[in-house]
Amino acid sequence: MRSSEGMVETARIRDWHNFVKLGINSVDGKVEWHQMPSVTVIITLLTLVTSTATLNVLIWSSTMGQSHINFIGNIADTLQEDGHNVTLLFVELDPDYTIDTGTNLVKHIIRYSSPYYNSADWRSLTFKRPTVFNSILGMNFIDLIKIQMYTYRICRGMLEDPRLIPLLRDSKFDLGIFEMFHSCPAGIMELAGIPKTMLVSAIGIGYQHYRLLGMEKQSSFVPDNYIKCGARMSFLERLYNVFINGCAYIFANIFEYCEQSLFEEKFPGFRSLHDLIRLKTL
């Protein structure tokens, strides 16, 4: 004989199975079950299936290294495989990574190179040379300044391109996705009329993410992304970590101000890039 628990479980499964076949009428507070027509069941199931929205997605991929390209490419492939319409905006920074887009499924790819930026300059960065492994303090701050100069020139080129922004606007994207290397993508996506954006990161949470979320970074014991210290830091290493975070705060605001000035020069009264990212990001 079956146990009472087994009989109860069987009854539950039977009731769940009948859920899609039975309807409920409530008359004078009484619940009456009746057999639903097959057509009603089919229409109900079709409604559930077709209610899933297909999004038109723009994904910004900057060629800052193959790992970043692959990271963004995997996101693009996942969305494309799920049935969304994905467009990859492939922005050239590193001339050594211009062929492999990191995606196998996305067919609509827009490649962009700025007339104000010489991609050969990227090879002057420390982390493009073997000397990066002999760095004493971690990532060279001169490299960070150079990268922001390069992205500034790319942003300027995009704003002056007569075809790019109209092309993006005509595509009527529902969602824009980008890594937070700089603030320009938020402004370009605003001009393209994209209502929502999403930040992604291949290197964890950076200073910009803390700032956008309104959080204070615990710089006394959380290692910065650009230093060589591990999770266990000495007093001097903690002091250095606080110093680096302070520098990051200053540089981040300077770089954002420079890109903000580009948009305001072209479009007077343009919204704050910081606010665009903070308010439109999912």
From TrEMBL:
Catalytic activity annotation: glucuronate acceptor + UDP-alpha-D-glucuronate = acceptor beta-D-glucuronoside + UDP + H(+)
Top-level class of the enzyme under EC nomenclature: transferase
InterPro entries: UDP-glycosyltransferase (IPR050271), UDP_glucos_trans (IPR002213)
MF term (GO), any: glucuronosyltransferase activity
Nuclease in keyword set: no
Superkingdom classification of source: Eukaryota
Membrane-spanning ranges: 39-60
Database matches in Pfam families: UDPGT (PF00201)
EC number: 2.4.1.17
Keywords (A to Z) from UniProt: Glycosyltransferase, Membrane, Signal, Transferase, Transmembrane, Transmembrane helix
Similarity comment: family membership: Belongs to the UDP-glycosyltransferase family.
Protein name: glucuronosyltransferase
Organism of derivation: Cylicostephanus goldi
Lineage, highest ranks first: Eukaryota, Metazoa, Ecdysozoa, Nematoda, Chromadorea
